[in-house]
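Let's sit down with a protein and look at its sequence and fold side by side. We need material for that, and I hope you will provide a protein of your own picking. Once you have written the record down, we can walk along the chain together.

***
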Amino acid sequence: MGDRPVATRFPRSVAARHNRPLVPTKIRRPHVNDTAEVLAEVRGNTGFITLNRPRALNALSLAMVRELHRILLQWRDDPAIAAIAIRGNGREGPFGAFCAGGDIRFLHQAACDGNPALEDFFTEEYQLNHLTHHLGKPYIAFMDGVVMGGGMGISQGASLRIVTERTRMAMPETAIGLFPDVGGGYFLGRAPGHVGEWLALTGSTIGAGDAVAFQLADGVVPAARLAALWDGLAGDFADGAAITQYVRQHFVPAESPASAYLAAINSVFALPSVKAIVDALEAAGGQGDAGAADWARDTAATLRKRSPLMLHVVLEQIRRARSMGLADDLRMERDLVRHCFYLRDDRRHNSETIEGIRALAVDKDHQPHWKPGRIEEVDPAEVAAFFRSPWPAALHPLAGLG
């Protein structure tokens, strides 16, 4: 059918269940060569979304955020659609990459240029993140391949989060002088024990079994079975519960390698400050079991490479968010991101975030010049400034989130 819009077709039984004639919806049918960045179609009583920016690992643009929001609102309010599924196209076709996050090169350029689209991006992305948690029907995320940053933001609200042996999941924002946003405080803060602090501070990448063990995924499906499961969702199901049951019967067990270090994670990352955490890791790196010592030493070395200022901000973020609802967490994160991209009066150098993106994605020298340069030099007053909202509550960009 090519790129020509076609009418969505529903089984007769779907119309009968809702006791009304169905009006066909003009939605594009996806195929591998389609140039749109978000593809959508309805088959059976399931809506299917495919992120289609494979060369960028489906990193989210502002246009993609807006299109996802439009589609989800339309399908949320359509009683003929019982469930929604989302996946990413990889370079070889469907699956293989879910979403690597937001388009950080755009964010860097927009910040340097003073482009107001930067503000729009974060406000609208966080509104989208909130929406995914409140669709009122099964939302099924096929989290195959890379799932990082903004990719977590559009999948953690899913009622079914599917991972595979190819899943590489992380919130790596401290590596670019940012913090785990898109609701990261909310979902990492609800991981068991102090796993949330570990993942948020280090940006460590985990696989499928760890994601399930740490309550960041619901089940594992082998990558080779994804296509059949995806197509199977186009069947004529009685309701969303039947679709959920159908998906769950495809789950298989998987091991969690990181669980071997769970006791150490819970002990060290429960400590009250970043300095205490790093000191404990560096002390443990020189003693005890070789495996545990290696883990502690490597973890400490990772933290020493991150932005010292943002490590302090992130630890405070996760611990505040643990007692917050999603909307309040997103409002806090919107405050934080404003401080990250705009210079404050007390700073006469580029923000940590602009510098971090420069080093990683623009100049690619991987030599960020963090200020201050050491964890021990961070001023608590500078950390506290991040948590003061630049807006009155009634005028906050996310004031309408409930």
